[in-house]
């Protein structure tokens, strides 16, 4: 099973790993594109006004540009510890047992605008590049990544659960992947799409899938696994699951 997660704009600072070694990251066939983008990001950091425009940053966020400037010299840490925010708080990898963490590192991967795809244990520095960024004089990140990342995802033989947000899923599709929508249900039975806290619920799903000893091979077995864990999951056919949460649980 492969669970695809979105990255986060916020990153944990620091780290105690050696500087970035692109050749050491998993999925080495992505190295040429990673190298091209990383070098472009470092070069862009030398022109702060241009970097602000390209990355959608304000002057108050110039520290993000400084991070990019030292991309190849900064300390690294495992990807699952580098990314922060609502989803990763719910995933909470630091609380996992050794065996659970090994499964998480094996099953979880993060879709990244800079690296394309990183596994949980891949050592990466802090950086700033979102899927919607427009690097000067270069094609869109979607145009850059789709020819390289698309075949990688298409070649995955295991069940793929795609929890990426729309902009990252657009970088390259994962054919046949199971997707999960999150809806809140009010006491009167009406439902609404969960926006911000969608990330928290997907983080909990990711934690469950990362730690379970089960290995579902299709969407029906995946639904059964989630239901056994106490989640209200609906499946109307196809590869989409709907996670329904009580309205009063949306903010928890």
UniProtKB/TrEMBL annotation:
One of its GO terms (cellular component) is cytosol. Pfam families: H2O2_YaaD. GO terms for biological process: response to hydroperoxide. This is Peroxide stress protein YaaA. It comes from Geodermatophilus ruber.
């Amino acid at each position: 099973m492969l669970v695809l997660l979105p990255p986060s704009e916020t990153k944990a600072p620091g780290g105690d790993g050696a500087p970035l070694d692109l050749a050491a990251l998993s999925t080495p066939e992505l190295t040429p594109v990673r190298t091209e983008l990383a070098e472009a990001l470092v070069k862009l950091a030398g022109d702060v006004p241009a970097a602000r425009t390209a990355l959608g940053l304000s002057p108050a966020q110039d520290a993000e540009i400084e991070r990019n400037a030292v991309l190849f010299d900064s300390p690294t840490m495992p990807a699952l510890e580098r990314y922060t925010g609502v989803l990763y708080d719910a995933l909470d990898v630091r609380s996992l047992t050794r065996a659970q963490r090994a499964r998480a590192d094996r099953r979880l991967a993060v879709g990244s605008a800079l690296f394309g795809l990183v596994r949980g244990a891949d050592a990466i520095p802090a950086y700033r590049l979102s899927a919607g960024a427009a690097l000067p004089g270069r094609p869109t990140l979607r145009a850059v990544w789709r020819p390289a990342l698309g075949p990688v995802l298409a070649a995955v033989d295991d069940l793929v659960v795609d929890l990426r947000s729309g902009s990252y899923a657009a970088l390259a599709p994962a054919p046949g992947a199971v997707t999960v929508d999150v809806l809140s249900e009010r006491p009167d039975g009406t439902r609404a799409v969960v926006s911000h806290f969608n990330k928290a619920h997907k983080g909990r799903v990711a934690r469950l899938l990362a730690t379970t000893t089960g290995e579902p091979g299709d969407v029906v077995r995946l639904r059964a696994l989630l239901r056994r864990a106490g989640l209200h999951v609906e499946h109307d056919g196809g590869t989409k699951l709907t996670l329904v949460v009580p309205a009063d649980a949306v903010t928890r």
